[in-house]
């Protein structure tokens, strides 16, 4: 698939505060991938070598626990996706990254990004900010699970993240909230 200006116009790269030269450098270095629903972009045990941007579609992060998938994050359009620990420390990933919908992903190899960081302090600052946001989101989710009841979690998603309710299966959503699918069904009946 050819990268087009139409795709770029709606991209987080275009809307960023990067100067035009840095935007062009980052855009031109991206590889574009059409990914089928359910395909893994990173498997547990592999060492992460890339950062992805969801241009269209959705991805999830999950791990296997006693033959059950536990979802820890969902990423929709204009979200960056990676396993920071694996990418940074060059160690195997403890979890999977997979698409939940047919998706268009932009991808940068970590060596390509390192070269871009050398060329542009603006890209370095942009990358750091995006990785910090990923870390903050992961930390916020862990805190959220500890401090809210399952019904409060579901209510929060209804109000603040309806996209999750609309685009994620009940099984995946229940594990993300930290409850069984049956418990989620009971909560949904009470709330709706």
Describe the protein's topology.
Layout: H1 5-9, H2 12-15, H3 20-29, E1 31-35, E2 40-42, E3 50-56, E4 59-65, E5 68-75, E6 80-81, H4 84-89, E7 96-99, E8 103-109, H5 110-119, H6 121-147, H7 150-160, H8 162-167, H9 170-177, H10 181-191
Antiparallel strand pairs: 1-8, 2-7, 3-6, 3-8, 4-5, 4-7
Helix pairs in contact: 5-6, 7-10, 9-10
Organism: Chitinophaga eiseniae
Pfam families: cNMP_binding
Protein name: cAMP-binding domain of CRP or a regulatory subunit of cAMP-dependent protein kinases
Explained architecture:
The protein has 192 residues and is α+β, with helices and mostly antiparallel strands. The chain has 2 domains: 5-140, Jelly Rolls (Sandwich); 148-192. The protein has helices spanning 5-9, 12-15, 20-29, 84-89, 110-119, 121-147, 150-160, 162-167, 170-177, 181-191, and strands spanning 31-35, 40-42, 50-56, 59-65, 68-75, 80-81, 96-99, 103-109. The strands form 2 sheets. The protein has a 4-stranded antiparallel sheet. Helix 5 crosses helix 6 and helix 7 (150-160) crosses helix 10 (181-191). GO terms for molecular function: kinase activity.
